[in-house]
Amino acid sequence: MDSNTENAEDADEEGVQDPRTPSLPTSVSSVSSVVKFCSSRAAAVTVLVVLTSMAGCRRPAPVKQPMSLSHKRHMEADMKCLTCHPGSEEQALAQFPTVADCMDCHGKARGNSPDEPKVRDYAQRGQEIPWVRVDKLPGHVYFSHATHVTLAKMKCEDCHEGILAATQVLTLPDVHQTMEDCMRCHKERNASNQCKTCHK
Q: Is 60 exceeded by the pLDDT of residue 13?
């Protein structure tokens, strides 16, 4: 028999708590200390579960865009979202503007952004501006811009939070809806919440 076992038995015989076990509140009248002990243990378990689940989640890294761009400035020029993002009314995916689209306004210098001349540089080289898409869906999720824009008559900013006031080019996703958000909106608009509606 080792010394630890002997010490534990001695402790039991003498009515002394084994030092290897966590200390519990011993007074029956000390209800608040029992609650505090249990809640602290529950909180620790909760934090552990959350941290474990977050370990598998990765926040997207910011992307590098080819130039600066202010959505707010374009909105102030009374432009419509569909002017620069065609396809939203009849396709699943909204498109980026072609360099020719940009040249309709930027054929001549406009504004004072140091990146504005880059539009003409791309056009002169015969290259499209290589915008990087920041909002990407998981492979098991299907979303149609046409359904939401044309049929449901939704506004772009309903999902693209703060886009109309964005003064910096997007480097991170601006769509943050959860499945619960989508299902709540579907319910409010009497749209289907069957799995196959969004999961193909």
A: no
